[in-house]
Write a structure and sequence with these properties.
Layout lengths: L13 E6 L5 E8 L7 E6 L7 H12 L7 E7 L5 H18 L3 E4 L1 H4 L4 H13 L7 E3 L17 H10 L1
Parallel strand pairs: 1-4, 4-5
Antiparallel strand pairs: 1-2, 2-3, 5-6
Amino acid sequence: MVKKIKAVPDSKKGLIFIDSTEFQNVFFAFVPLDDRKKIVQKKYDLHKGSFETAKYLNKFLSLAVKDKLELISSLVVSTGEGSFAGIRSGVALALGMSLVLDIPVYVADAKVFKKYDLEKFEVFLSVLAKKPSKAGAKKINTTASINIDYGAKPNIGIEKKKKLKQIH
């Protein structure tokens, strides 16, 4: 049986912000479109690596939107510079959620928002929720490629390089 999702007024909706650029932790925020005072944000320590990002996103969604995914109007994901695996997992989660929920994804360069202190960061998030392009985020076509800045070339070991040469 297919469960019907009730329509939610835009005033109750908000965006999910994902920053997985740091190797040791991941940061999420839910930013209501209408009330900056109701921003929910949480940083989780990654003990076993970036593959835990999905687990913590699930925990965060339970906390922030009480599993009511219809409250999410868009997603913003940080694209670097930072941890190779972390950025990939954050982007993959955002693209997957975008396709499932049929909502837009925006990408933001970490350098844009990491310069803010906490109070100004909340202002940045509220601007991001209302006008993502004004906050420096770019809307992407979820079927197109994303330019990611890892800050360095991926560290591929010698054995893997030999295998890649054999394939090509």
